[in-house]
Write a structure and sequence with these properties.
The chain has 180 residues and is an alpha+beta fold. The protein has one helix spanning 2-28, and strands at residues 40-43, 56-63, 72-78, 81-82, 88-89, 93-102, 105-115, 120-124, 133-139, 144-152, 157-165. The protein starts with a helix and ends in a 15-residue tail after the last strand.
Length: 180
């Protein structure tokens, strides 16, 4: 009996030691290290990207995004058209454009074709010292993506920072309302 208890204690101790080593290894394992988030700089253009395409305005807000004490216009557009009653006529996919207009400068924060999905955005500011952030949410039937944009005065452009991009999922339900 005494040998059985000793053997059991040795197995438990060995298991704890081995698991402890594995945990320590995983903490320092470079494969498990947090990956650096890739950012992109969106620079100004003087050409209005809405030219030469038929865009339907979905949402628009006036807010100072570049901290120059002047309001900028942030607008969300799609190529889906409206019918005579004003209802959007969605296709299986359409182009979307989230555009900042600051005087005669334009910044295309998001400009992409979205298949079986929509584009939504939020604008947030925590205090006067913090740059205003625009967060874009793109849910589709097979993916959910979130991206944050904030103006960088030193770089004279908007920094695009991915927040979340799901693997291919097959969403069964979403409570996000659709545009009318």
């Amino acid at each position: 009996m005494k040998n059985s208890i000793t053997a059991l204690l040795m197995i438990i101790s060995l298991t704890i030691i081995l698991n402890g080593c594995q945990i320590q290894e995983s903490k320092v394992n470079p494969d498990n290290a947090e990956k650096k988030v890739e950012t992109n700089l969106i620079q100004e253009t003087t050409n209005d990207p809405r030219q030469n395409t038929s865009w339907t305005k979905i949402e628009e807000i006036n807010v100072d995004l570049d901290r120059d004490s002047k309001e900028d216009t942030l607008g969300l557009y799609t190529t889906a058209e409206r019918d005579k009653e004003g209802n959007l006529m969605w296709d299986d996919g359409q182009k979307w454009l989230l555009l900042v207009q600051s005087g005669d400068k334009f910044y295309s924060l998001l400009s992409e074709y979205v298949q079986l999905g929509s584009v939504y955005f939020t604008v947030s500011k925590y205090s006067e010292d913090i740059t205003t952030k625009v967060t874009v949410i793109v849910p589709t039937g097979a993916n959910l993506k979130m991206v944050s944009y904030s103006y960088d005065k030193d770089k004279q452009g908007f920094i695009e920072e991915p927040i979340y991009n799901s693997k291919e999922d097959n969403f069964i339900y979403t409570s996000i309302p659709s545009y009318k």
